[in-house]
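Intended use. Records like the one below are meant for learning the mapping from a protein sequence to its folded structure. Do not use them to infer anything beyond what is encoded.
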Amino acid sequence: MFGIRRPLRRALSLGLPTAWGALAITYKLSCPLARQDGLLARIVTSAVFFAVGTGLILHMRQALVRELKQARRVAGAAQSVVLRPPPPRVDGLNVAAAQLSADRGASVGGDLYEVIATEHGVRVVMGDVRGHGLPALGTVAALLGSFREAAHDEHDLGRVLRRLERALERHLRERARDTPDATVAEEFVTVLVLEIREDGELHVLNCGHPWPYLLSGTSVRALSRADPLPPLGPFPLPVDLSPMSCGRLLRGESVVLFTDGAEDARDTGGRFFSLPESLAKAAHDHPVSPQQMQRTILAALLRHTAGRPTDDIALLVLENGRGCGPSGARGTARPATTHPQPTTHR
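Structure written out for the chain above:
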């Protein structure tokens, strides 16, 4: 049935303009009124050709709208394959993820995230590619493909990040070779790689990405305030990639990862969105699930920006729904940030 509809649509797309044109020519050649020079004849002739022109324009517009919708469906399907929604529960962790596009018409963005249960613990990546569209989606696919393999293969979290760096280098080299573009040399990706072990211990490597928040009851604090590494792309990673220990995620606590569009969102008065305040408010009255938390935060972001965020936003909430020791010592291993690295502004 689908194979029959395509030739029919093509025939209609060609036949309708031809019919309109034939109607105008037939009128001009065969209608006596069209050959007269009177005012009435000119008005009628003008009306006929105006109707024909309007019909052709409307037909072309409808054809372009159909093509645009089809392109968006294809782009959306491609992104849903590359950026798969994580399952609601991964190895005892309750998970919720969502995206908010800055452009309502856009189907393809540069945010990436993944949650994978491995023998080394649950490994998570959150990243933000500079740019939009198919080039950004290609970079997202390259990084996620590498992470999905490395998360299982590599015992050390630093080697996982090193694999991501090499995957990005290969992808950008191939892009520069296939489609020469001066902007390829300026590409960068902010990436945060997180490991949650069986006992709840948190180990993190951060390349220019916003630090996640730890939500414990109604208390919200940054997982760390240390200087992150530079984003992937402009500079090589240092030789030593020792993960930072960030304490332990206790039962019922959540860690919230996000892209910089969440905290860079402004209202009409230019005030930034306070993500910690919104997280605390969402959890103030009663415990909420990660799904409820995600919906509440995205709704607050839309209210704050009057429904028009200026950057794409990705949000990932992981709640520890498994048992772990009651005395997980928290803390950060490095001093507070004094010179934060840039994050992706598009």
